[in-house]
Amino acid sequence: MGSSFFRASIMGLLPNDRDLTKPSETVELVVDASDYRVKVVDLVVRLDHFLVERINWRSRNSIQQLIREGFVLVDVPTPERPRGGGEPVVEKRPSRKLRHGSRVVVVIPDENRRQFSADAMGPIDVLFEDEEVLVLNKPPYVAVHPAGRYYSDTLIQRVHAHFKDEVNRGVMAPRLCHRLDRETSGIVLIAKRPAGHTQLRQQFENRSVRKSYQAIVCGVPIPSEGSIRSAIGSSRTSAVRLKMAVRVDGMESRTDYAVLEEVGSDQRRHALVRCDLFTGRQHQIRVHLAAQGHPLVGDKLYGPDEALFQRSLDGELSAADLKELEHERQALHNTLLAFESPASGPVEINCPLAPDLQAFLDARRGG
Question: Which of 35, 181, 314, 362 is catalytic?
């Protein structure tokens, strides 16, 4: 099975007390039966196969070499100790069998630690800042936190690097208040301290935070505005574990939309659509619009063929694939966020459409 069929369960990579401005020396992973869609008692997976799906900074062959050279430690649970013995030991057999609950610790070789260091972090684009919050404009292709294949140069690591002195003095402990997909751009809210994080998270849970996105979709939705209230749950037909779908027995979901602009030729029309979120389900906008027959431009998972998603992860998208997608990434941008700052009171942030999406529209205007 391909790497898109799994979700890495990462522990120890982002503990609250770790300084993310310093190079990581280890990555700890936990084997979880839910990632494989099997019962706990049925899960058996080889160590090398497990790591191949989760490490993008080593090739398949070099992962086996990494194991044989003693860079991998394993703590396997037993009936007496379902959480393991607590002391991972070096495991040099790539074929070592792992079960649900097994902990795997990978020691990052020196040549790979550079990409985890503060010096390797990219910049941050600050839209708003006060004593308690930080609002950033996240560029596309940057993960918000370390997970799966993306361990380095994530948005939260960039924040730790940018505020290195404050973090080291203990006056800041930045935490994400919500998330955007790696390809999605736009507004991200970060709390500077735990108390503020708790207050802001409560606002999200109470649905008092206003969130608005802009998406470029294939075709033009009819009617031009409306409310999509289809329930969402895990897809039962997809081989991609993280894929969601409209399901009668899913979770309550609501997306209000309005067409802002139509572009393109009669043969291929597109629409710029404003989407206001009233719930925050995984991939909600992408699922709702695709279910209406208007998937996002560039969406590899909910667009023409979900096989594009796997080929993208493997770096194997062809010129024909990109032509079919029409854009390299999903055309989604978080344009508005309104919340109550613990320090400043009501705050409303607006963020113009990302340059690559604006360029897509400009190229098709007057078509």
Answer: 181
* Top-confidence residue, 107 or 327: 327
Give yes or no: 181 in active site: yes
Give mean pLDDT, residues 24-45: 77
- How confident is the model over 223-252, as a mean pLDDT? 93
CB 309 within 8 A of CB 315: no
CA distances from 192 to 22, 35, 67, 215 (A): 19, 32, 38, 30
Smallest CA-to-CA distance from 357 within 139, 126, 124 is with: 139
Q: How far apart are CA 170 and CA 30, in angstroms?
A: 29
Asked whether the beta carbons of 270 and 66 are under 8 A apart, the reply is no
CATH number at residue 164: 3.30.2350.10
The answer to the question of residue 8 being in a domain is no
Q: Closest by alpha carbon to 73, among 93, 43, 49?
A: 93
pLDDT band with cut points at 50, 70 and 90 for residue 27: confident
Claim to verify: residue 52 and residue 180 sit in the same structural domain: no
pTM (2 d.p.): 0.75
Distances (CA, A) of 180 to 184, 321, 330, 354: 6, 24, 12, 14
| Last residue in a domain, options 81, 107, 133 | 107
Predicted local distance difference test score (pLDDT) of residue 121:
81
